[in-house]
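Need a sequence for this fold. Nothing fancy.
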């Protein structure tokens, strides 16, 4: 066999290894994927599409306050309809991003040669940032669609495939539909049309514009029907908000060529993460330097060479430069992941530089260059894999560091075990919040339990006991030192008929799981003072019992417990807040705690709720006897809910709970 044939086969094997590796790293260990507020929100809304038949015309809110288009939600709904588990979304999105590596190889091979395609695919396959972002349950800008967009432009203006222009418009609207950052590709297409205007095919252009307009029409109609909130937000962002020039976009584009700054994912423990890796971070500077040289090389080649070569480099340069330039004017700091728009163009440019440099060498230097290049590729690949492998291990071992966030693995395990304990009964989640729309941990469990009966309660403040013989609870995550769930969890543990288990994380944090099997709820009120003839508010809430200390000192916190019973479900759209007031003998308000024990829409007739209010006592409060009272009001109009008599007539504005003596602490 001739040496050239052996080299070709060897290179082909290397390409296959790179492609398989790129696919594997994007779908393997799916439970180690990030699962924070954004990811959970995508899953929740995609589940609503897949299982409730919802068809939103607008997607999640963007960083500027403007709603994204909903393509991300519809795309994520596909795997969730097959398997209603976030793991399905991780694998599906990872698969699409793995195919982007294959598409990158195909694009490089088609418009350059076998070597450029292989080198670009290899760099893309092992890139830690590309791997990490490819596993997020938020497709944002899918590199696979970016490849389709660039490929369509090249097909039109390099190979004269006229109808590929329709594909360019379709890919453009898909990029915008996934994330508003896709708008950055509009000037890329526009400038190509202007530069090559004499060759623009009219009918494909008109069809492409029609496809673009029709695809965006539902979003535009929805915005119009709601008073143009998104258009007005975009106008304010462009014309009203003060912007500034920043090099961050260009800097991030260079960072994304390697693994620089990926240690930020390790949060506060990043020194430990770095300590487990060899000190080869300087290799990232080398790759950034290659990108800088590649950009210069591409500019030169855009003016020299064959017409096809010039056009290819020009389109790739536009695909890099215009999105970066548009992001260089900003009204706020730019997150690194916004520059994922440069994938895989940066790898194609670097690969073209390497191949061009190799071909410029005299023939007798090429064997040595191949050997050196292979060794450098092995070093680079091994280093990048070590970086990402260490990150996966580290996030599994230290899941609560705050950078990457708790991986999907642990809350998912807690949800699965709670479902097994509940056996179809309701699951109550006690976490640090109860609003999944903007609070992370409630959002996580709302997504994980989407198809199962569950309710979300702020476990720092309340304990819900439904009118049911069986109910399961998830509490946490709870830190090893204990946290604000302690008072509520102590009452939960004190109830009769309670079984407990835990899902532990390696760094000591836990999810506590409880199962209550008891129809009688008398034990829930243990330790509280029951109110004779329990007063009832006009909205159907009855106050059954309360608990508070008899004495307190200035500067302390007065802990007040209320046991309230939902006699009738609240009207749709209502929102009630509780208050606990500390009042002096003259009736003056001296301190208070207002709060939402858990969201009003979640109330059900028969619910029994224990709520904890912490009233701060001013350090300068005079000694004496003070009255504690409680009540309800509507929000946001702040209208008091009166206490009603048996006939339903209002009689009081608040309920007196008792008195507390304020006196200095004895030393």
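Here you go.
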């Amino acid at each position: 066999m001739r040496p050239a044939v052996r080299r070709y086969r060897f290179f082909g094997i290397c390409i296959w290894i790179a492609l398989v590796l790129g696919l594997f790293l994007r779908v393997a260990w799916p439970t180690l994927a990030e699962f924070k507020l954004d990811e959970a929100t995508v899953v929740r809304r995609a589940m609503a599409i897949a299982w409730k038949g919802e068809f939103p015309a607008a997607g999640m809110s963007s960083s500027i306050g403007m709603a994204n288009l909903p393509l991300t939600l519809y795309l994520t709904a596909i795997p969730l309809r097959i398997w209603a588990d976030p793991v399905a979304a991780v694998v599906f999105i990872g698969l699409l991003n793995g195919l982007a590596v294959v598409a990158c190889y195909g694009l490089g091979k088609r418009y350059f040669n076998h070597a450029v395609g292989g080198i670009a695919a290899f760099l893309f396959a092992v890139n830690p940032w590309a791997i990490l972002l490819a596993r997020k349950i938020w497709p944002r800008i899918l590199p696979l669609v970016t490849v389709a967009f660039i490929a369509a432009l090249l097909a039109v203006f390099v190979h004269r495939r006229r109808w590929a222009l329709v594909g360019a418009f379709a890919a453009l609207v898909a990029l915008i539909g996934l994330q508003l950052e896709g708008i950055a590709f509009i000037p890329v297409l526009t400038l190509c049309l202007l530069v090559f205007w004499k060759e623009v095919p009219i009918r494909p252009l008109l069809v492409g514009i029609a496809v673009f307009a029709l695809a965006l029409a539902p979003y535009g109609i929805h915005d119009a029907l709601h008073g143009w909130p998104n258009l007005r937000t975009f106008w304010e962002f462009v014309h009203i908000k003060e912007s500034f020039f920043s090099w961050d976009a260009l800097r991030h584009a260079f960072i994304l060529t390697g693994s620089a700054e990926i240690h930020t994912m390790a949060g506060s423990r990043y020194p430990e993460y770095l300590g487990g890796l060899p000190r080869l971070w300087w290799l990232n500077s080398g790759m950034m330097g290659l990108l800088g040289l590649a950009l210069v090389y591409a500019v030169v080649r855009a003016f020299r060479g064959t017409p096809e070569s010039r056009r290819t480099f020009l389109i790739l340069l536009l695909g890099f430069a215009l999105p970066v330039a548009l992001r260089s004017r900003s009204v706020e700091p730019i997150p690194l992941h916004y520059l994922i728009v440069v994938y895989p163009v940066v790898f194609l440019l670097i690969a073209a530089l390497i191949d061009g440099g190799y071909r410029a060498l005299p023939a007798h230097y090429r064997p040595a260059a191949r050997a050196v290049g292979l060794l450098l590729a092995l070093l680079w690949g091994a280093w990048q894999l070590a970086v990402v492998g260490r990150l996966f291990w580290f996030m599994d071992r230290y899941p609560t560091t705050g950078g990457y966030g708790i991986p999907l693995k642990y809350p998912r395990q807690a949800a699965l075990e709670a479902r097994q304990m509940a056996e179809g009964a309701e699951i109550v989640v006690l976490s640090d919040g109860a609003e999944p729309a903007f609070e992370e941990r409630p959002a996580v469990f709302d997504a994980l339990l989407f198809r199962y009966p569950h309710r979300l309660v702020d476990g720092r403040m309340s304990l819900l006991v439904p009118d049911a013989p069986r109910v399961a609870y998830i509490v946490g995550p709870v830190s090893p030192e204990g946290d604000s769930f302690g008072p509520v969890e102590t009452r939960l543990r004190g109830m009769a008929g309670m079984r407990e288990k835990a899902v532990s994380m390696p760094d000591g944090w836990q999810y506590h799981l409880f199962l209550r099997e008891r129809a009688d709820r008398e034990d829930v009120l243990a330790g509280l003072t029951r109110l004779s003839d329990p007063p009832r508010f006009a909205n159907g809430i009855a106050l059954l019992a309360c608990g508070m200390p008899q004495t307190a000192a200035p500067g302390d916190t007065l802990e007040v417990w209320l046991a309230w019973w939902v006699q009738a479900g609240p009207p749709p759209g209502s929102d009630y807040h509780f208050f606990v007031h500390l009042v002096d003998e003259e009736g003056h308000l001296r301190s208070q705690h207002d709060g939402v024990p858990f969201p009003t829409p979640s109330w059900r007739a028969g619910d029994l709720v224990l709520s904890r209010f912490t009233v701060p006592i001013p350090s300068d409060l005079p000694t004496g006897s003070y009255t504690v009272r409680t009540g309800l009001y509507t929000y946001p109009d702040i209208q008091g809910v009166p206490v009603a008599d048996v006939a339903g007539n209002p009689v009081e504005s608040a309920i007196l709970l008792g008195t507390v003596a304020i006196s200095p602490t004895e030393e």
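For context: The mean pLDDT is 90.
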